[in-house]
Amino acid sequence: MSLEMIAVLIFTMGYLLGSVPFGLILARLFGSVDVRQVGSGNIGATNVLRTGRKDLAALTLFFDIGKGALAVLLAHGFSYHLYQQTGCAPDLTLIAGAAAFLGHCYPVWLGFRGGKGVATMLGVSFAAWWVAGVVFAVAWLLSAKISRYSSVGGMVGAIAATISVMFMPASHEIHQVYIALFSGMTILLLWRHRGNIKRLLSGQESRIGDPQ
Questions:
Q1: Does residue 207 lie within any of the structural domains?
Q2: Rounded to the nearest 5°, which phi and psi values hold at 38?
Q3: Rounded to an integer, what distance in angstroms lies between the CA atom of residue 212 and that of residue 205?
Q4: pLDDT in tens for each of the 212 residues of the chain?
Q5: Which stretches are transmembrane?
């Protein structure tokens, strides 16, 4: 099997895993509600919380983080197996992670209308380089707590993780790939938050704890 075909298969695996809309599934199964008809219409944990089900929101957050991490870990395992068999293998881990992030934002099952990718990118960050995951989580929580804006927390976390990757100890080639893919995910994440950014600038963004 060619390297190109392997990369396509890894990307497809990551995308399909990332495209599973856990927020929508959980809200429908246990909350009897279509989360797309609630609040912002997003399928992520923040909007699931607006249904009044903190338990489902927590599960959504867990699974959205988990699918990003799992995509990276599966690709890492495959790369290691390939190395054991052939003596060489490309680093496909972050390709799978970026694909999972893309799948969450643009899931094929929902007409390519998905979430904003914060939790999934957090999972990718933890699995790709745990330091980036810690930086992401701390920056997300602190900025959300200080500003009381969930959107601000997610955007600051993604930017902080990308900056941290610039100091990642790795070969030049791997380092450049990580910087490029983390930067790409952050740019897309900010684009997915463009509505939030407009509301922040106009003073109309909902704060954490505000009634919907």
A1: no
A2: -120, 140
A3: 11
A4: 677 788 899 999 999 999 999 999 999 999 878 999 988 888 999 899 888 899 999 999 999 999 999 999 999 888 777 766 655 555 788 899 999 999 999 999 999 999 999 999 999 999 999 999 999 999 999 999 999 999 999 999 999 999 999 999 877 778 898 999 999 999 999 999 999 999 999 999 988 876 55
A5: 6-26, 56-76, 92-112, 122-142, 150-170, 171-191
Helices (H), 45-171: 45-49, 54-86, 93-105, 118-128, 130-147, 150-165
CB 64 within 8 A of CB 100: no
Give the range of the structural domain holding residue 64, as residue numbers without chain letter: 3-202
User: CA 117, CA 23: separation in Å to the nearest integer?
Assistant: 12
Q: 44, 64 in Cβ contact below 8 A?
A: yes
Give domain status of residue 7, yes or no: yes
Q: Cα(172)–Cα(184) distance, rounded to whole angstroms?
A: 18
CB neighbours (10 Å) of residue 113?
14
What's the sign of the alpha-carbon dihedral 140, 204, 113, 43?
Answer: positive
Note whether 156 and 140 are within 8 A (CB). yes
Does the residue 181 lie in any domain? yes
Q: Is 5 exposed, middle or buried (0-12, 13-18, 19+ CB in 10 A)?
A: exposed
